[in-house]
Amino acid sequence: QVQLVESGGGLVQAGGSLRLSCAASGRTFSTYTMGWFRQAPGKEREFVGAIRWSSGTTDYADSVKGRFTVSRDNAKNTVYLQMNSLKPEDTAVYHCAGRRNWDRDFGSWGQGTQVTVSS
Asked: CB count, 10 Å around CB of 21?
C-alpha cells in the first residue's frame, strides 16, 4: 500500500521560499508520476506540478511556472516542491499524490501540509 507523508509547510512572508517534502513508501515508484496539488479555503483543489519518477520530466500549472520546482531523490524515495517568490494567493493546503504512469487519475494521496503566505 502506497503511503505519502508531506512535511515542510508553514508561515512565510510574501516573496519568501519554502520547500515541501513528500516521503513515499510501500512500493517501487519507478513507474509512477508524483504530483503536487493544493486547495485553498472555499476553492476547488488544483494541480500545481508533477514529476515522472523514472525520467524526471516535470509539468507545472501556469500560475506557478518559473516560481515552483518539483524534484525527486531516488535514494530517499522523496519528492520535493521548492516554492520561491511566494504570493498570498499561494496560501493553501498542499497535497502530494501518486499515480501509475498508465492511470489517468491520482489514486494515492498524502494528508496535506498547510502553507500560509502573509502579505
From this structure: 17
